[in-house]
Specification:
The chain is an all-alpha fold. Helices cover 56% and strands 0% of the residues.
Length: 285
């Protein structure tokens, strides 16, 4: 006969306490009893089906869904329109779900910006198909990331512009939005430096000054395209002029263009575009 005094909870393994009278408890607590009930209610997965998502995966997807709602509101109406209730409605979740994931509206704004930076870097790396062996072509590809070449990049440029306006009066957002070390200028300067080493740049080029001019100029030209003040063809002519001035004899092969894709919310992965400041372009890692 087994010893009832040594029975353990079938859920967590904690020894249960036998009462002075009555039936011995099966579970050590109501919490374990509820967990066992939920397990019995959940149907067994079909053979060969993928494993159920982990709670951390579900949480990450929910946070991403809420962040995408912020992006859409910012792109269409500006951040001033992004109230917590409006964000919840746009994400099609309850206000309580938004408040569960984010302590405040400001925390949500900051986290959504960080997610946009990460997505922008990831997708930019996938689009740039040149390496340091072709410095001029690589630089051309990097500068293309500042232009609204498709619906995704035009959408994300509007989002970053809305964030840029808010960051002027929000030090916390500014800290996320701006990088003191200017990674994009440093990246462009390094690419020009590779060309200098190989002898493909014009003599007397100051790569740091050229990098500052190219980054700021490409950002401003991209915004002009977004506003309809210039065409993409005009902007590319301007950028080509500056590239030829730096690399007079190099072959700056035009960057292969990706297929146009819908904005976030209608496709699995949006393609954010560099913002009007250094911290928002392709990865410098």
């Amino acid at each position: 006969m087994r010893d009832e005094n040594k029975r353990a909870c079938p859920v967590c393994g904690t020894p249960t306490v036998r009462p002075g009278r009555g039936r011995p408890p099966v579970y050590c607590s109501r919490s374990c009893q509820a967990r066992a009930y939920r397990r019995r209610r959940q149907p067994l997965p079909a053979p060969g089906s993928p494993p159920a998502p982990r709670p951390t995966d579900v949480r990450a997807r929910q946070r991403r869904r809420i962040a995408e709602a912020v992006w859409r509101i910012a792109a269409e109406q500006g951040l001033d329109a992004a109230s917590m209730r409006r964000i919840a409605a746009e994400a099609r979740v309850s206000l309580r779900v938004v408040q569960y994931h984010f302590d405040s509206k400001h925390a949500l704004m900051v986290d959504a910006l960080r997610l946009l930076h990460e997505e922008n870097e990831r997708l930019a790396q996938g689009r740039i198909r040149y390496d340091m062996t072709e410095p001029c072509a690589l630089l051309r590809a990097v500068l293309d990331e500042f232009l609204p070449l498709d619906e995704q990049r035009a959408f994300a440029l509007r989002v970053f512009t809305a964030y840029y306006a808010r960051s002027l009066t929000d030090p916390v957002l500014a800290e996320v939005f701006l990088a003191a070390e200017q990674p994009l200028e440093r990246l462009v300067s390094d690419i020009i430096g590779v060309g200098e080493t190989s002898g493909s740049t014009a003599p007397g080029i100051d790569r740091a000054h050229e990098a500052d001019l190219l980054v700021s100029g490409a950002i401003g030209l991209g915004l002009d395209v977004l506003h309809g003040r210039r065409s993409l063809a005009d902007v590319r002519t301007v950028l080509e002029y500056h590239l030829r001035r730096i690399f007079p004899d190099a072959a700056c092969t035009p960057t292969p263009q990706p297929d146009p894709a819908p904005a976030p919310g209608t496709s699995p992965a949006p393609a954010p575009q560099p913002s009007p400041r250094p911290n928002t372009g392709p990865s410098t890692s």
